Amino acid sequence: MTQQALAGGDAVDRLPSFSSTLRRQGVERLRRAPLRELQINLGRLCNQACHHCHVDAGPKRTEIMSRETADRVLAWAQRAGITRVDVTGGAPELNPSFRYLMDRMQGLGAALTSRCNLTVLLEPGQDDLAEWYAERRIRLVCSLPCYTRENVDAQRGRGVFGKSIEALQRLNRLGYGTRDDLVLDLVYNPGGAFLPPAQASLEADYRTRLAEEFGIRFTRLLTLTNLPINRFLHFLEKSGRLAEYQRLLVDSFNPATVEGLMCRHLVSVDWQGRVFDCDFNQMIDLPMGGRRRHLWDVDPGVLDGDGIAVGDHCYGCTAGAGSSCGGALA
After folding, report:
1. Coil, strand, or helix at residue 37?
2. What class, spelled out in words, does domain 34-239+259-307 have in CATH?
3. Is 177 in contact with 184 (CB distance < 8 Å)?
4. CA 187-188-192 angle, 5° bins
């Protein structure tokens, strides 16, 4: 079974393809809107190995963006006039070129977002990382899939919750989550084969529990649906929930989410400089527009209107309230 398809067994084979569902909504092909953001994956090295990680990241991964590739990405960003950059991994901070890249992107005038797993702030050699972030006013999007120790440790590993709380308290002391210019967004993703609850109501629960129990404040909560790829796909297969979850995604398709899909507004580049329509497509090696190329081979001036490569995993971003790197869509 390929990861691009939800198919896998007779019951799943009868599910409609994502492309056919779009056509029924009058969308012959999903196409790009004007480019708003460059998302850069600096590699798959991470100090954690979360059970549902769509990147398959971990401490033993060796894929890391080189300084040479980083320089080529920087040159393209300058040529394209990029104003927003979203940096992710793995744990992007573990890439030796991370701070170099961020400083130079900021020098180009780009607003920066870093996707931080929180516990990296406590890693050896990262003692000054929180202060470094605060000095540059870099927006942080931090993973915290629940406000309880049991659920976080079950999904992310024993001891991760306690370290995450310590990291959040450190960020709060610096002004993150309490000042308008130090944005601290948290990310929730489900611990099993179900969709996220309503983002607004869950955010209220997070605010109450984290404030009352740990004195923690944050800017926003973003909800993210687990896509059936990589580790989460393996979890679904092992638990016998794959067909059930795929049916849930298909039945929950929401046409109101299509306009805001992140693939329409960003370019995703991997550690080798190859381009994709989104981070999820990157993880299953589905290249941008179905054509294999590097970022520096792409003319940014002609991206608007290009076709987007889709697969049946895309149901995950259009189910319910929708899902993207910016949270719910509808």
Report:
1. strand
2. alpha beta
3. yes
4. 145
List, as own/partner pairs, every contact residues 201-209 make where C-beta atoms lie below 8 angstroms and the sequence separation is at least 24, other chains included: 205/147, 206/144, 206/147, 209/147, 209/148
**Cα–Cα dist 139/53, whole Å:** 22
Q: Which residues lie below 8 Å from residue 173, measured CB to CB, with a gap of 6+?
A: none
Vertex 205 angle, CA 204 and 211, to 5°: 90
pLDDT of 6 over the 70 cut: no
| Rounded-to-integer distance, Cα 225 and Cα 327, Å | 9
User: Phi and psi of 47, rounded to 5°?
Assistant: -85, 0
Number of C-alpha atoms within 13 angstroms, CB side, residue 318?
24
Q: What is the pLDDT of residues 257-272, one digit of tens each?
A: 999 999 999 999 999 9
CB contact at 8 A, 269 and 38: yes
Please answer whether residues 115 and 69 qualify as being in contact, where contact means their C-beta atoms are separated by less than 8 angstroms. Answer: no
Domains in the chain: boundaries: 34-239+259-307
Handedness of CA 46, 47, 49, 53 (dihedral sign): negative
- Cα R_g (the chain), whole angstroms: 19
Tokens of 56: 């398959």
Report the alpha-carbon distance of residue 305 to residue 311 in Å, rounded: 19
Strand partners, 84: 111
Query: pTM of the entire structure?
Result: 0.93
What is the C-alpha to C-alpha distance for residues 226 and 316, in angstroms, rounded to an integer? 7
Q: How far apart, in whole angstroms, are the C-alpha atoms of residue 320 and residue 226? A: 12
Ramachandran assignment for 90, one of left (phi > 0), alpha (psi -120 to 50 degrees), beta (any other): left
pLDDT band at 13 (very low <50, low <70, confident <90, very high): low
For 287-310, the pLDDT digits (tens) are 999 999 999 999 998 999 999 999
